[in-house]
Amino acid sequence: MTRNANIRDEALAVDIRPPAVILCEPQLGENIGTAARAMANFGLVDLRLVNPRDGWPSDKARAAASRADHVIDAVQVFDSLEAAVADLSFVFATTARSREVAKPVRGPDEAAATVVGYGATGLATGYLFGRERWGLNNDEVALADEIVTLPVDPAFASLNIAQAVLVCAYEWRKTATRGALPFALDEDANPPAGKADLLRFFEHLEGALDGAGFLRPVERRPHMVRNIRNIFQKARLTDQEVKTLRGIVAALERRPSRPRKDMPPEDATDEGLLGGEGGEAGEAGEGSA
Amino acid sequence: MTRNANIRDEALAVDIRPPAVILCEPQLGENIGTAARAMANFGLVDLRLVNPRDGWPSDKARAAASRADHVIDAVQVFDSLEAAVADLSFVFATTARSREVAKPVRGPDEAAATVVGYGATGLATGYLFGRERWGLNNDEVALADEIVTLPVDPAFASLNIAQAVLVCAYEWRKTATRGALPFALDEDANPPAGKADLLRFFEHLEGALDGAGFLRPVERRPHMVRNIRNIFQKARLTDQEVKTLRGIVAALERRPSRPRKDMPPEDATDEGLLGGEGGEAGEAGEGSA
């Protein structure tokens, strides 16, 4: 479990009732456990098992859950799917196959919108997952309101249960939190540089390049300056980064091979500050306009 | 591998260059294999390994890939991350932790939009995933353009590599196909019933209910009829379903306990056709308006 030092409030605050996950006759404890872990990743807690083949509790499930013990501890076991869905108001059946059942087929994002909508009003919802080998039968699908399927490559469509749970849980949380990520670029610690500082850097750089004979011929200078400024504008520099760049320019200006003041600049043989010779860099500048 | 009889063309046709998946020093062959399977599910094929701990090829990886052999067979192994990304134009580093690195942090959906945008123009892109135990170091993250992270529950944030690959691959395919699902409700096989048939069913049902004394008192009849019609309108009935319902009404009209023609309807003691007695069903009808 990774704890972030700087967790965003929007990612923590989810006051929408999460859906139940119902596994119908799961065969392997490992799959129950990895499904529980996937649920925990995205804040789901209500795991229901209908007739798990190897019984319950399951050490293999707990081990595979990788510390999602709060989900494993809260597991409910039912002896029929009807009993498992009885307290729910809207149920999606997940299936990877086209069926004759005449129900709407949704993607996980559409299903999440429905489940979050009901969950926001306190209604209980659920996702129904079938057996590892052959999924759900038609009678089981008939207990659901709608079908959810994943936009897989039809040539390689089989997902294991935990993967299907993961994507449904991911879409649920993404919708419930409006996509809130657990952390973001810390803009407070990385504010963009003020334009005055940036302009001083540009002037410093351009002065150094004039000294190095890079910004020639003179009629092309405005164009080349624009292209160079655009390079650094795109980088959205912070204060510290502007300082670093000014240090770089100053250091390069001071280097031993720097053309002497008493030599005409056109005799300068050192490479241009931005790599390559003056002429080449000028061409590159043109190309990047 | 499940093949659908009725695969939708939109789900098959993806002519956008998919991103590479780069695993940096993966430790377990199983994780390489499950990552390959997740890639195959969503149409990614370019898997790159940087110094896999247990070498390559890996029987464990192939076994865990569950027949995603085309991905395993095409794996490229590199001895540095720089070499692994050299031919790419835009790289996302995945991380579950807030970092000091000043890079934009995106969700998998935003990252997919970027990668699909570049991929549509033929540019090569990639997602970089770190080691099982501790992810990527800052030098490795510095090789990437932006960071992608998942909108996990901050209290339970650790995903395994295959899960992270799965969600990124899912979002990629969803974006690349505009959410095309591999199958849908077959509207051709399940056309909605024509309104004339539906109205004949309504008249049949309402006639039967009049006969059973259900639609009373008479001043409430229009309201009750509206509510009952709404129930069946919401069900978006097909031709066949309308026929089935007419059969149901006819069968219930004929049942032995049906009030005789020579008895006044108010003496009917059988339950209303839609469950409950007339009065109760009337109340329910009111509630559902």
From TrEMBL, chains A, B:
It comes from the Bacteria. One of its GO terms (cellular component) is cytosol. Pfam families: SpoU_methylase. Residues 253-264 have a biased composition (Basic and acidic residues). One of its GO terms (molecular function) is tRNA (cytidine(32)/uridine(32)-2'-O)-methyltransferase activity. Residues 20-170 form the tRNA/rRNA methyltransferase SpoU type domain. Residues 273-289 have a biased composition (Gly residues). InterPro entries: Alpha/beta_knot_MTases, RNA_MeTrfase_TrmJ/LasT, SpoU_MeTrfase, tRNA_m1G_MTases_N. Its EC number is 2.1.1.200. It catalyses: cytidine(32) in tRNA + S-adenosyl-L-methionine = 2'-O-methylcytidine(32) in tRNA + S-adenosyl-L-homocysteine + H(+); uridine(32) in tRNA + S-adenosyl-L-methionine = 2'-O-methyluridine(32) in tRNA + S-adenosyl-L-homocysteine + H(+). It is an enzyme of class 2 (transferase). Residues 253-289 are annotated as: Disordered. It is found in: Cytoplasm. GO terms for biological process: tRNA nucleoside ribose methylation. Catalyzes the formation of 2'O-methylated cytidine (Cm32) or 2'O-methylated uridine (Um32) at position 32 in tRNA. NCBIfam families: rRNA_methyl_1. PANTHER family: TRNA/RRNA METHYLTRANSFERASE, TRNA_RRNA METHYLTRANSFERASE SPOU TYPE DOMAIN-CONTAINING PROTEIN. This is tRNA (cytidine/uridine-2'-O-)-methyltransferase TrmJ. It comes from Polymorphum gilvum (strain LMG 25793 / CGMCC 1.9160 / SL003B-26A1).
